[in-house]
Design goal:
Elements lengths: L2 H21 L7 E2 L8 H12 L8 E2 L2 H19 L1
Antiparallel strand pairs: 1-2
Helix pairs in contact: 1-2, 1-3
Amino acid sequence: MKLKHRFIIYISLLIVFSFIYYSLDKDALQFKGKEGILNSYLDCLHFSIITQTTVGYGHVYPNTTVSKMLVNIQCLSTAILLLY
């Protein structure tokens, strides 16, 4: 797969997952942290970028089953994209 296509898929994944984080019910999608970190779309996009680059916040982590599953799916899809 060409680098250009990978980049487009990578950016698409960022946008899709940040939209999912932003649009889901805040009770189902909870993240532990000092403050409510995912309050705006920009916060969700930033969290998605940090998750997809595997840097991680350290002080913010998924707290519910739904949020853990979404973060795991995002990490696995990124790994598959990078390895393919």
